[in-house]
Amino acid sequence: MNPGDALIAPPPLAAARPAAPLEAVDALLPGGLRVVAARRATAPVVQLRLGVPFGGTEPGHAALAELLACTLLKGTDSRSRDAIDEELAAVGGTLKAVVGPEHLKITGQVLAPGLPRLLAVLADCLTAAAYPTAVLEAERERLLHRIRLTESMPARAARAALLRHCFGDHPATRETPGAAEVSAADPAAVAELHRTALVPRGSALVLVGDLQPHRLVEELAGALGDWRSDRAAVAMAPLPAPAHRGQPALHVPSPGARQCEARLAAPSLPLTDPGYPALALADQVFGGYFSSRLVQRLREREGWIYTGQSAIEQRTGSALGTVQFASAQQHSEAALAGTLAELAALAGPQPPTTEEIASARGYALGLQSLVLSTQKGLADSLYGPVLAGLPADWPERLTAALRAVPDEEVRAAAAAHLRPEAYTAVLLGPSTAPTPTP
After folding, report:
1. What rounded mean pLDDT belongs to the chain?
2. Given this model, what pLDDT does residue 2 score?
3. What is the pLDDT of residues 367-413, one digit of tens each?
4. DSSP for 47-76?
5. φ and ψ at 246, to 5 degrees?
6. Given a cut of 50, is residue 438 above it in pLDDT?
7. Average pLDDT score over residue span 121-139
């Protein structure tokens, strides 16, 4: 462009196009498994998400659950580990199991013609997993190595410290099992946990892709017909309200750390609460994206933090509003004070403006549109709500609610739920007494 050339204004953004209605079937199989099958034929692929409530109160539960997840898909009475890998590879399929304090989750994808084969492998693992000794011991060593790596990560250590500070010894704090518990876990106890806890009743299966929903549900009744139990899946005990709300931050020393990690948590609203859409937009204004107040003040204007964000974490029967940021040690106290000051302003004398709400709404709706346009995004968006008992059209309902919620409800949500005195804070860093910013 040459000096003096006139600037050409970009054309206005086109109006958002409404998404095509979702063709889906929501059914309950005879064994108690809820199935949501949705057609999204943008590619000849099917995405699979299986969620099983997997709560446990015993001290060694987290270790047994991790070993189960590591070995569940590594061999059955009739298929070796290599046979499973070869069978899935032949149809372009993958399966992966992960577990946390609340759920065991199996994620998979496959080329559409190979879906029956993938379901056959999955059913075999659910009903006849063998937990071979050699495989289990190898996975135990890998898990111990992963635990050592996790414990050395300041971000993970800060989160663990926050959960313990908020909830004591509640099972929700055991996101990573202890090395001693993993070393002591009995292989027979892993198999017993499978028998008693990995059950269909209370679980949910989501399938999205190039499929025929009604026909698939009929086929699933046969494919997973042998996965049965008289037991129901056990949900994690609900979280109590976080302790130490409104108190000074707990300083956790981390010798050798090169920066400080801050984590905050407060009670929030679950997806099932009618006020959730308004609070989601209020949280977006505070710290949910790059144009948020948290990022613009603490990172862009003050230069106190490297990264920062807020979010609403969905938990069993409840939710947590979380805030996190990383900073140099000398800026950590100022950044924490600035975070609380921004919360106080948002909930009090400086509520979200019309412009801020419009920007947050546009970002949320745009992101929702992008996510729901892909098979993977739709499967992920359905998984949590379906497992929580919400209807299969929940993503569409949420989109409509985000678009329609009045600005005044967003401001009221900020005032009710984003108050600084509602938060519990932890600051992890090189020492317990950071040098404050002048």
Report:
1. 94
2. 63
3. 999 999 999 999 999 999 999 999 999 999 999 999 999 999 999 99
4. EEEEEEEB---STTHHHHHHHHHHHTTS-B
5. 80, 0
6. no
7. 96
Q: At what angle do helices 394-404 and 375-387 cross, to 10 degrees?
A: 90
For residue 17, how many C-alpha atoms fall within 13 Å in the half-sphere facing its CB? 6
Q: Which two tokens stand for residue 225?
A: 């017909």
Torsion of CA 332, 308, 260, 422, to 10 degrees: 70
Other beta carbons less than 10 A from residue 272's beta carbon? 14
Q: How many CB atoms lie within 10 A of CB 225?
A: 13
* Over residues 230-243, mean pLDDT: 95
d(Cα 234, Cα 232) in Å, to the nearest integer?
Answer: 6
Those residues whose C-beta lies under 8 Å from the C-beta of residue 21, and which sit 6 or more positions away, are none
> Which two structure tokens, joined as six digits, stand for 367?
């992101």
pTM above 0.85, yes or no: yes
pLDDT class of 435 with cuts at 50, 70, 90: very low
Tokens found for residue 344: 């106080």
Is residue 269 within 8 Å of residue 295, measured between CB atoms? no
CA distances from 215 to 123, 211, 287 (A): 18, 8, 44
Ordered domains of the chain (ranges, CATH): 24-224 (3.30.830.10), 250-429 (3.30.830.10)
List all residues 6 or more positions away from 323 whose beta carbon is below 8 Å from its beta carbon. 262, 263, 264, 265, 287, 294, 308, 309, 310, 339, 423
Q: Encode 347-360 in three state secondary structure.
A: HCCCCCCHHHHHHH
Distance CA 249, CA 229 (A): 46
Residue 233 near residue 294, CB atoms below 8 Å: no
**Which backbone phi and psi does 157 adopt, to 5 degrees?**
-65, -40
Mark residue 43 as left, alpha or beta (left: phi above 0; alpha: psi -120 to 50; beta: remaining). Answer: beta
The first and second tokens of residue 206, run together, are: 């989501």
Per DSSP, the residues of 264-300 read EEEE---TTSTTHHHHHHHHIIIIISTTSHHIIIIII
Question: CA dist 354 to 156, 223, 237, 351, 390, Å?
Answer: 36, 52, 39, 9, 31
The model's confidence at residue 19, banded by pLDDT at 50, 70 and 90, is low
- CB under 8 Å to 184, separation ≥6 — which residues? 60, 63
Taking the chain, what is the end-to-end CA distance rounded to the nearest angstrom?
A: 44
3-state helix, strand, coil in the chain (%, to 5): 45, 20, 35
